[in-house]
């Protein structure tokens, strides 16, 4: 039985810890201190690190953890990320605490971005957020769109473990795009309550994201109409997505 616990790091990052009674695996340790404290508190031995991409808020704690634990670090190698010991690529499989994971190549945020998916959960780094999506720093918007499509194709019940607590902010933007969406309205109310209590809004599910995340709804009439009212001259899904991403950049 695996438990998955979020550790808050830096400003709004989550380091996800997968653990059983004895062992733990962490995803994107942007800082070492919260990980070490959690391991000590729960008497856990660190057995691996999963790394989605090379941004500092995702890898900042790795070298300190490597100093203390002799562990594999799975991810996509890059000159700016010297920590990776086990290179992974699309469709590779690996086992984490006995659970099989498959690697997704998720480009469009950074070129070295990957995700890790099991039968019921996905660690998607900075590609898909609660009610939002990552920014396009490297690669193309087409690649970002394709990455979101890969995530959208996962079963609705899949738990979505994003790397940042951005949900509330994203939902406020989503309401501008899709104001009549009742599921979205409910999610906003629920999220406001969670944040007022300082509780995480994640994981969400693929099903909830498909119902409320405007970036996964670029083929829906409501979203298309909103973007057309802002001057978009197309109803093609990719064009709607690109217009939405550009609008969000300016908000
Ligand atoms: Zn990032
Ligand atoms: Fe990040």
Explain what the structure shows:
By secondary structure, this protein is an alpha/beta fold. It has one domain: Ribonuclease Z/Hydroxyacylglutathione hydrolase-like (Metallo-beta-lactamase, Chain A, 4-Layer Sandwich). Helix content is 35%, strand content 24%. It contains nine helices and 14 strands. The strands form three sheets. The protein has a six-stranded mixed sheet with strand order 1-2-3-4-5-6, covered by helices on one side. Strands 7-8-9-10-13-14 form a six-stranded mixed sheet. A two-stranded antiparallel sheet has the order 11-12. Strand 2 (13-19) and strand 3 form a beta hairpin. Helix 5 packs antiparallel against helix 6 (182-196). The structure holds zinc ion and fe (iii) ion (FE). Zinc ion binds next to loops. The site of zinc ion (ZN) has 4 residues, from loops.
CATH class assignment:
Alpha Beta
Placed side by side, the strands forming the largest sheet appear as 1-2-3-4-5-6
The coarse overall form would be globular
Distance between the termini: 42 Å
| DSSP strand count | 14
Mean pLDDT score, rounded? Answer: 98
Q: Indicate the radius of gyration in whole angstroms.
A: 18 Å
Strand share of the residues? 15-25%
CATH architecture: 4-Layer Sandwich
Number of domains: 1
Number of helices: 9
What string, H for helix and E for strand, traces the elements in order? EEEHEHHEEEEEEEEHEHHEHHH
**Largest beta sheet, briefly?**
6 strands, mixed
CATH fold topology: Metallo-beta-lactamase, Chain A
Low-confidence stretches: none
